[in-house]
Predict the structure.
Amino acid sequence: MSRINSLSFLFLFAGLLVAVPAAAEQDATKTRQETASKTGFHHYFALELDGNASYYLFALTPEAYQASMTLDGRDLLIIDTNGNSVPYAFGGNLETSETPKKSFLRPVPWFPLPRSQSGKNVQDGFIIATDGALRIRERQVEAEHRSGDIVDLSGIVDTTNGKSRSDDTPGLDALFVRIDISPGGTEEYLGTVEVLASNDLRSWAPVTTAQLMRLDHRGQRLERERIDFDGALLAKPPRYLQLRWRGTPPIIAGIEVELLPPRGSDPTAQTPLNKQSEFRDWRGKLSGQMLPENTVFFDTGGAFPADRLRFHLPRLNTVVPVKLYSRADENAPWRLIRAETLYRLQGRDGTEQETPEIRIAPNRDRFWKITAERENNNAGNTGNDKGNLRGAENPAFDGVLLSVGWRPETITFLAQGTPPFLLAIGNAHAADAGIPLTRLLAGNNPYLAAAHIGAPQPAPANVPSFSPRTDSLSLEEQTRRAILWGVLLAVVALLAFMAWKVAKHLPREGNDKETK
């Protein structure tokens, strides 16, 4: 009997070790959720409506992203004047950015533009066939005697009567200018080109300005041949593009266009959600904090869904190879995003050339850092093999600036209840209250009117109710909980082992007496 009593005591003690912390954790979770419900949301913004409609659509502003207190940015509600929540859905921009369509390249013909055509009608130097294809009138123009180039897109895109492209026409996303590196070609190039669009070679509309380069340094090559249109020519691609070179143009080996697959029967292709994806917000020129190991730390101040990065070096003629990292909060580990080369150089024509926009997958991390890579200039030698830091050689690396850009997410809501409506945002314990867009929209082709986020508003008298998050613990709390449960399980395992040892070594009484 003594053996049975000892075992019962040990197992009872182990059960208390597990039950007491579990009950305490449940009480703490309940208290935390009740406190969050009483606190409500920290920020409220007015929603300004355009016209009368059943559904409205608006884009999140930088201020809304900064007000959010969760990593996914879904801690928000839309309420009416009585504090009642309104049905809403995230739509368009987030799904488009996370599931991009695969692009493909296709070569296109191009024609040099003689300097004699400068200031004249470009059409005078070409013959336009019945199918829209170009035929040059003059003899072949040497590279050094041209002022620009005409890119013929008539064989790819459908711009009949200047209308938007049809569903079976691919979208124009970018242009690749292949610089000739063969003997007699362009050895090195660093310059700027202006891109214009036209359907008749008479009237030209500016599209973008880009920097192209091909530089060699110590066996490494720095190239940029892509001209990104950033969605400007997706909906209405032109027949022709004109490349106007600032300064001496490079010798071109070929030109390719990057095309997106046709839209086909995409039901959301004509909605305002896709139009919104052509715009991008920026949080610009954030100063960094210099850290040891030639590292610069940045705090963007919010969980922006960044898909573009810009870096600005404070001094000319600086080239810094770096590695780019990000993390969601101060306790999360750093994640390597990519390696990049930052530069700021002076071109032939006196204009500055900087690192172009860096395209990344949508990233909501708030904290970023760049670390200069070590460069070993003594490879194969027995001397100093530690290498050096280009950034350390150039103190201008200390003043680098960061800008983050993103396509603002759009929200569609049903104008249910009594206006005016408010956007409530900023509660780390609020769960995502949005519903799928397909469930929100009813009827055939419902009309979506525009709305805008207005000025900040005081908290309403009726605090809106919300569903608490089940995963609202911070990383520090989650780590503490994991350590606590790990220790408890280890103690229980130790007690089980002790119980087994005790049961094994306890003296046995007579079998008949113990059985009785």
Observations:
- The CA atoms of residues 231 and 278 lie 5 Å apart.
